[in-house]
Amino acid sequence: MSWTDSLGRLAAQLTSHKPSLYPDEELDDLADIKIGKLSLDAFEGERKAYALTVKAGLHLFNESLEKSHALSQEIHNPAGSYWHGIMHRMEGDYPNADYWFRMARSLPIYEELAERAYGYVRSLDLQDITNTAFRERLEEWASGSGWDPCAFNALVEQHVTRIRDEQAEELLKHIQWLEMRLLLEYGYVQSGGGGTLLESP
Q1: 141 Cβ partners below 8 Å, 6+ apart?
Q2: Residue-wise DSSP of the chain
Q3: Domain co-membership, 99 together with 148
Q4: Are 91 and 156 within one domain?
Q5: 75-92 per-position pLDDT tens digit
Q6: Are residues 62 and 149 in the same domain?
Q7: In which domain of life is the source organism classified (predicted)?
Q8: Domain-located, residue 37
Q9: How far apart are CA 101 and CA 150, in angstroms?
Q10: pLDDT tier at 47, thresholds 50, 70, 90
């Protein structure tokens, strides 16, 4: 299956979905097969590593944690480490997620991600979040100026393990979705992909 012929359609299909914050069933078994068949024969070196990040990311959009993990373990660049971190966060292994987010150091997407994520939270009426302490923590987090994946990981951990508020969950899923879309686009561009892979949400 040709990379250029199939990637755009597959990415459009999968990235419209907002993955869960914790393990869930795979969205589409057939999509995993299609991702697996995306050929990397035309890629070498760093471009191949970034193309692998795209495949790892698509598997996570499909909620296929094991398949994404198998790929991210083979990728030795900051984007691969970040996908590795997201996978561990989604499976509920928050300390391991922190390790891989620290390994990623800093990525060019951080500035735009912070702007979008914090702006999104500030645009919402958070009064529907019933846990006052968590609501205040979200407000404080969204007053920040730079993206810290470990801080977001801590928010997700607190929500999943202790809070479980429906409104907070939708908010955090949306931020995770923004994070994953920006990271997927970054990997695509670094692999040498022309133009943009995803339309703006």
Answers
A1: 118, 121, 151, 152, 155
A2: --HHHHHHHHHHHHTTS---SS----S-HHHHHHHHH---TT--HHHHHHHHHHHHHHHHHTT-HHHHHHHHTT--SHHHHHHHHHHHHHHT-HHHHHHHHHHH---TTHHHHHHHHHHHHHTS-GGG---HHHHHHHHHHTT-SS--HHHHHHHHHHIIIII--HHHHHHHHHHHHHHHHHHHHHHHHHTT--S-SS---
A3: no
A4: no
A5: 999 999 999 999 999 999
A6: no
A7: Bacteria
A8: yes
A9: 7
A10: very high
Region 114-139 average pLDDT: 96
CB atoms within 10 A of CB 41: 8
> Do 51 and 128 reside in the same domain of the chain?
no
pLDDT for residue 165:
95
- The reply to whether 195 falls in a domain is no
Under 8 Å between Cβ of 35 and 55:
yes
Domain count, the chain: 2
Q: Is residue 131 part of a domain?
A: yes
Query: Considering the domain boundaries, does residue 127 fall inside one?
Result: yes
Quick check: 57 and 183 in contact, CB under 8 A?
yes
Q: Which domain holds residue 12?
A: 3-105+185-190
CATH number of the domain that residue 75 is part of: 1.25.40
- Across 65-73, average pLDDT: 96
The pLDDT value recorded for residue 3 is 65
